[in-house]
Every structure is written in C-alpha cells, then in structure tokens.
Amino acid sequence: ESMFSGMFDKGFTESVLWKTLKDPALRDKTIAEIKKDIQKYTTIIIKLYNKGLDKDDREMLIDLISYSKNQSGEKFLKDIVVNKTSEDRTFGFKKYIQDYKVDSNFIKSQLDDKQLRLYSLTYVVDRGKKEDYEIFQKIIFDANAPTEERILAAKAAMLWATEVAKKEIYLFILQKGNEVLVAPSIIIFENVKSDEIREELCRVSKKSQSQITRSNASYALIVYDTTLIIPYLIPALGEEFLYEKLTGLDVLTGLMSLG
Length: 259
Description:
Elements (H helix, E strand, L loop, with lengths): L1 H9 L3 H9 L4 H10 L1 H12 L5 H14 L2 H12 L6 H11 L4 H5 L8 H11 L6 H8 L5 H14 L2 H14 L2 H10 L6 H13 L3 H11 L8 H4 L26
Helix pairs in contact: 2-3, 3-4, 4-5, 5-6, 5-7, 6-7, 9-11, 10-11, 11-13, 12-14, 13-15, 14-15
C-alpha cells in the first residue's frame, strides 16, 4: 500500500491513472488516493470524462469530480445539466445537489425541464423557503399533475400554507385524491384536524382499496377524542399495521431519490 501511495506522490499521467481506475484490483485504492488530494486530480479526471466512456465509467468520474467541491467541479456539473444531449444530466444534477452549496436559482431554472423537474421540486421542498410555496399551489389541485409532484406539493403545503389552507388541501386530497396520493398525505398532514377531516378518514379507513391507506387512516383517527372513531378502528385490528412516519424526501421513497 505504501508503494501504491508513493506512485501517487509522484503524480500519475492521464493514461496511467485511467489504467489503475479500470483495474478491479486497484480501483478502490486508486479512488481513495485520488480523494486524499482531489484538487490535484480534478482537471485530469474531467479530461478522462470527455473521452466518451461507457455509463458506469462516466458516473464513476462524475462522482469523483463532484467530490472535489471546487469551482471547476461545479462548472463541470452545471455544463452537464444544461447540455440537453448529455446522457448524464440526471446523475450530474443529483450530484450537484448532494455535494455543493447550490445556486437555488439554477435549481429552479430546471423546473420546466421534464427530465429534471421532479428533482428540482424535491430540492425546493426540502431546502426552500416560504416564498417558494407559490410553485406548488396549482399542482396540488391539478388532477392531471403527476402524483409524485402532488405528494411534494402536499409536503410544501404542510410546511408553508396557512392553517386554514392546510385543512382545505388535506380535505380535498382525502375526497378527490388517488390512493397513491392519499396514503402519504395522511402522514404528511397527521397533525391537521377537523370534524370534516375525521369523517373522511373514517370513510377512507373503511373503504379504501389499499391496506396501507386504510392503516394510515386508522392510525390518524387515534388523535380524535371521540367514541365516533371506534367502529372504524376495530376492522384495522385484523390487518397488519403498516403505518410508517415519513419526513423530508421520504415522501417519495420508492419513487425517486436524490442519492
């Protein structure tokens, strides 16, 4: 291992560096050594990326470049993202969000990009501000909007909407939303209460076709101090309890990930 490190101390040429990265026996050690002095190797790694490699190799190099967290790495990732012909746009966008103190305006500029829109919305929900809520206000009531976007809009509403608006939105989802939207929304709005919401939760706990949705609705009813909920809790005792509290990006677990 000391000999291997010594080779890096002397500096690798582009061709030798690539050979060690491609050698299964040396790859992990090579990556570890590169990361020890990543600023030194960023430029040469960018050159390697531009050689037209396969997807796995390109993503390995993007990961290393992103690890640098320097200006050349940031420019490299942004260039990939804005290049509509690049096959690495999504991976590069995710690495940029993950590794850099990002430019929120750059993130929002991708909201109209079909390929990157969901990742942009996810970023805004997790790291945005109250004034960003306007981005989501139309989505939540749009039956034609992708369900993933409507789940994020529900999360945004819980974060930034008024208390009155939260109740209106939650009730609307319970009454009009599809199963995939209703189940996580019950968890997102777990502390939002009203008699109308309770009545809808009772209905959902009994009539939903999804066991997860029924379980979530039954759990949500527990916070209501009334015997009216009892008939809707008893059937749930015969089902496996599936409620799982979700926060942040977890509302999209199984749908997408920022890495």
